[in-house]
Amino acid sequence: MQGEMVHFESSGATIPAYLAVPSDKGPFPAVIVVQEIWGLVEHIKDIVRRLASQGYTACAPDLYVREGGAPPSGDLQVFRKFLGEIPDRQIVGDLEATFRYLQGRPDIRKERIGIIGFCMGGFYVLFSSAQIQGLRAAVDFYGRLVYPELNDKKPISPIDRAKDILCPIQFHFGEADPSIPLDQVTRLKEIVKAHGKPFELYTYPDAPHAFFNDTRDSYRPEAAQPAWQRTLAFFAKHLKA
User: By CB atoms within 10 Å of each CB, which of 53, 161, 184, 224 scores lowest?
Assistant: First the structure.
């Protein structure tokens, strides 16, 4: 499955994105893929291709283009500081522009567009699912739920938008992830249930943060494989039906 770079406009900026299209005849359902904190790296492009092999046009925008790309560092703290300077509204706006770009393609089923994200991408999935009208399904892999502090760029924690979710959503969390304690996951579950949101939520024993990323030491196939099968079943139900 081959991918290509495409470009579209978002609030005065040109956004590059990695796109892969199924080899069959369309129109196809589509999935927006939201990067981890590391940026639009090969792992994210591989997920785009995996989704295309399953019959979805998949598109991963570069959410760091306005900042000149990801920092030239492998230090997580450098990336966290970098991300902390980017307003949430900017990133969600670029994801909404990705949604509109896909809606405008003639090979897309415009009413069958979903979103999936990992790590940083997970909490932007939660934000997007509460804001972007028309999303059909959302999958959040271990997105942070509570910000350590709020400011003008990060004015609300992701968990506080859970009551506003607009589409069915599926969550995946590792039980050995110290950045997302299980009491926060329990609180999330209580919120979406209390507000009548259609959701699925799964936790995975002994799985750390980023357990799905098969390019890092955190990868846990015993969690990643069932999580992926649940993801595909969820998208098939909401995007292909």
Answer: 53
Concerning whether 107 is annotated as a catalytic residue, the answer is: no
Alpha carbon of residue 228 to chain centroid:
14
Domain that holds residue 61: 3-240
Query: The domain spanning residue 97 has which CATH number?
Result: 3.40.50.1820
Q: Which member of 140, 167, 209, 238 is catalytic?
A: 209
**Is the whole-model pTM more than 0.70?**
yes
Predicted confidence band at 44 (pLDDT cuts at 50, 70, 90)?
A: very high
For this structure, is 94 an active site residue?
A: no
Catalytic residue from among 94, 119, 167, 238: 119
Q: Which residues of 82-118 are buried (b: 16+ CB within 10 A; e: fewer)?
A: bbeebebebbbbbbbbbbebbeebeebbeebbbbbbb
Please tell me the predicted confidence (pLDDT) of residue 163.
Answer: 98
Confidence of residue 2 (pLDDT cuts 50, 70, 90): confident
CA–CA dist 93, 96 (Å, integer): 5
What is the domain count for the chain? 1
Task: Please report how many Cα atoms fall inside a 13 Å half-sphere around the Cα of residue 60, on the Cβ side.
Answer: 27
On average, the pLDDT of the chain sits at 97
Q: What angle do CA 219, 96, 148 make, to 5 degrees?
A: 55
Query: Is 59 annotated in the active site?
Result: no
More confident residue, 74 or 125: 125
pLDDT (tens digit, 9 = 90+) per residue, 203-228? 999 999 999 999 999 999 999 999 99
Residue 162 DSSP code: G
Among candidate residues 62, 88, 140, 177, the one labeled active-site is 177
